């Protein structure tokens, strides 16, 4: 029963977090901002206000596909946010510019996250293969190797948290100081940003829980081999 509850939790938590961000986005994407600025306009204003002129802004297909590409120095906004004038679009655009500002200022956690990407990708791709074989074959050493690979991916998830929260804090400050949103729009904007941050918290929490479960399995296997 305990394992059933555990698996229900790690399945439901990400689903609920994703539902919350999509719900908040859908609600406030229908609310136009008082400035009537498009997401593209918001991004360019904040970039200019911070003296960042080497980052471009362009539309990209999909919904909530917005991201900042540090290699190409491009902020890509989903078309609804790029062309739209909603509170949600302004919040998302400002958040992505927050990452561009982090990059411009060489924000330590962003640099650390970038350095972890290759290791995290390897960990994500190979850890479960090693873990599965280790558990099925009863090979604790192979399971331990899988856990080590998985640890890299978990560390990446944890390091992502301060990066995303900092980008959201920068977004709120920039939206207010630039006059893109009014005082009565701050609460709505923060709801969008907080909902988005929740998805990263959920992903990190699930990753840590799964890592702890596997460590306990490894400990049990090691004890039985003695």
UniProtKB/TrEMBL annotation:
The chain crosses the membrane at residues 6-25, 116-136, 142-163, 192-218. It comes from the Bacteria. Keywords: Membrane, Transmembrane, Transmembrane helix. InterPro entries: Zn_peptidase_2 (IPR007395). PANTHER family: MEMBRANE PROTEASE YUGP-RELATED. This is Zn-dependent protease. It comes from Priestia endophytica DSM 13796.
């Amino acid at each position: 029963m305990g394992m059933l509850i555990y698996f229900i939790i790690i399945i439901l938590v990400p689903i609920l977090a994703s539902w919350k961000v999509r719900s908040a986005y859908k609600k406030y994407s229908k609310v136009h901002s008082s400035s009537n600025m498009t997401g593209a306009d918001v991004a360019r204003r904040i970039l200019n206000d911070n003296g960042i002129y080497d980052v471009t802004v362009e539309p990209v297909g999909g919904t909530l596909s917005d991201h900042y590409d540090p290699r190409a120095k491009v902020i890509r906004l989903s078309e609804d946010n790029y062309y739209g004038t909603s509170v949600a679009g302004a919040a998302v655009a400002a958040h992505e510019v927050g990452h561009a500002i982090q990059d411009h200022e060489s924000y330590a956690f962003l640099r650390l996250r970038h350095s972890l990407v290759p290791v995290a990708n390897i960990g994500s791709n190979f850890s479960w293969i090693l873990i599965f074989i280790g558990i099925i074959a009863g090979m604790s050493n192979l399971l331990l190797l899988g856990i080590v690979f998985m640890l890299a991916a978990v560390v990446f998830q944890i390091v992502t948290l301060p990066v995303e929260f900092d980008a959201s804090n920068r977004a709120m400050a920039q939206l207010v100081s630039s006059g893109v949103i009014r005082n009565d729009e701050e609460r709505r904007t923060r709801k969008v940003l907080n909902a988005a941050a929740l998805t990263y918290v959920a992903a990190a929490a699930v990753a840590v829980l799964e890592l702890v479960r596997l460590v306990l399995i490894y400990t049990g296997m090691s004890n039985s081999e003695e």
